[in-house]
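Record SMP-30/Gluconolactonase/LRE-like region domain-containing protein, 268 aa.
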Amino acid sequence: GLALLAIGAATGAEPAYPQDAAVVTTLTVGPDVSQPVALAVNSRTGRIYVANAGSDNISVVDGASSTVIATIPVGPTPRGVAIDASANRVYVANSGSNEVTVIDGEGNAVVATLPVGKEPWDLAADPNTGRVFVSNRGSGTVSVIDGRHNLVIGTVSVGSLPTGVAVNPDMGRVYVASSGSGHLAVIDGVSNLLIATLPLTSEASAEAWDVAVDGSSNRVYVATSAAEASDADAGTILVIDATNNSLAASIAIPSPAEALAADSASGR
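=>
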């Protein structure tokens, strides 16, 4: 079977460094799954949802007992998964069928399948509005879903090869990393309009892959990998001050980054 790693970090008053992190459990997500590529956590129920791109299904993990409690068939090649905890809905981007699967988190049942753009890659849900934003890597767009009624209500052009997407519910902003054009797109989550396109700095000369939001500090983190073959082993995390859409910091990391997450509670 495939394994899901859970990482724990120190919680003392002193700042935590990489040596403070530790693997607390290794979980096999099932004998009939392959290529787990993404996961999301429902903070209210404690359930973890793992997208298995090679077996076209979702593993549902009970976080309290670290056991797999369900395996849900979805569309071809699920690449991304997002949770609307307030509605207990799970959204899965199926890049092989250009669709999003909607799952009821209570009964682990598929309740809708929605057509979106070409090669949906990632998605993020806004619990305040019930909207879900889907990055369509193959069509350079973001599909906007009304999660309350399971309807696609808009499409926003954002640039070449959009990949990671994240939402700041408090500010009503959506951030989309484009691996092809190397920029960060900013969308107004209410009007569904593109309001800014932030190019990466020359020092980061990179492809943007994923994005995460720290709502408490209103900062956005962009994971990048080097665009030049000579720097193929390098990576950078760009820190954007979302109050004025300016670069606040650039953090070098030893290897390319294609995914990241931010914890607003700890600032990590």
